[in-house]
Amino acid sequence: MKYLIFIFKHRFRKNSLNNILRCKKIKDTRIIDLSGPYFYFLGKILYFFIRSKKVVFISCDGLDFLKRESNSINFWMGGTSQKILEKYKKFKNNFVAASTIFTDESKLLIFYPTLINKEKFQKNFNFVYIAENKEIENDKSLKVWKNHKKEILENLNLLDKIDFWSNVIDIKIDPVQKIYIDIKSLLRFELVYELNNLLKEKFILVGSNWKKKYPNALQNNYSNKYIENLYKGNICVDFGSKNSDKCIYPRSSKIIESGGLLFQSIHNDSSEVFKDLFDKTCFSSSEDMKEKINFFLKNSNYIDELFMTQQKNFENDDFNYRTIKSIENFINNR
């Protein structure tokens, strides 16, 4: 594959894809962005005429859906394989941005941080958390949380273990993915409560629906520049995507690209992705989160070293090249 061409109508997906659209080349594959209401039409013309396997077209969320499997894929963002519309499920060229232990991950695509902001870390850093959260009303989810809250907080990775779920719900009957997402929301409420109590004025919480409980929370602001400036030079807390058991997804990628230090709960692939940072910037429990935060506050000079290690971890193209190769392998086998 020599060219990967993005063609989709709506501009908002450009934000979710972060810097991968501005990355001109990954190893020997050129990246071309023909997204948006105008360039999209040029992309569709090229798609109509170019059928070579060396040129692969990628659309997002089925807008428009690309049916030709020999040199195109459809990338469904913001969800798992359950997001694929029923009328398109028969096609083999569907890929998704997220997966859990309850969904298919054979067609998972992850685009990793690239073109990272390399400004120096702030000396007077804050801890930043930007996310929405919702009240949970499902009785089944609330019961699971009530009965297993303590053990979940003691082992945050427990939610990504099938043995845990087999003992608390009926996997064959219950809406497992919905309950999984609900429990992650309830976990966010608990961990944000801990962060707010511990950090006080050093905690910047952004999200309009937090304001009912935390009046100092900032209103939603979807400006890219606003978010980048908040992340840059700060320690950015993240609990992962509600839809995924993987550590890299649009928000965590945005944090790293913006020049923030990602401080994240552990996920199934955290050790593989973060390598030397795994024991330092990933937390396995509520207590581990608080202990590491106290260490950061007392050893602020150490943050620069962690920040440089994070930059080096993603400065080459190896992670994204792996993603490119998975696309290429699929196309070559059509």
The number of helices is 12
The global form is globular
Give the DSSP E fraction (strand runs of 2 or more residues): 5-15%
For the sheet with most strands, the description reads: 6 strands, mixed
Secondary-structure-based class equals alpha/beta
Q: Estimate the mean pLDDT confidence.
A: 95
CATH topology of the largest domain: Rossmann fold
Helix coverage percent: 25-40%
Count of all domains: 2
Description:
- The chain has 334 residues and is α/β, with parallel strands linked by helices.
- Helices cover 40% and strands 13% of the residues.
- It is built from twelve helices and eleven strands.
- The strands form two sheets. A six-stranded mixed beta sheet has the order 2-3-1-4-5-6, sandwiched between helices. It has a five-stranded parallel beta sheet with strand order 8-7-9-10-11, with helices on both faces.
Strand and helix map with partners:
Blueprint: E1 3-6, H1 12-17, E2 25-26, E3 29-33, H2 39-49, E4 55-60, E5 72-76, E6 94-96, E7 127-130, H3 139-154, H4 162-168, H5 176-199, E8 203-206, H6 224-231, E9 235-238, H7 250-258, E10 261-265, H8 270-274, H9 278-281, E11 282-283, H10 286-298, H11 301-314, H12 318-332
Parallel strand pairs: 1-3, 1-4, 4-5, 5-6, 7-8, 7-9, 9-10, 10-11
Antiparallel strand pairs: 2-3
Helix pairs in contact: 3-5, 6-7
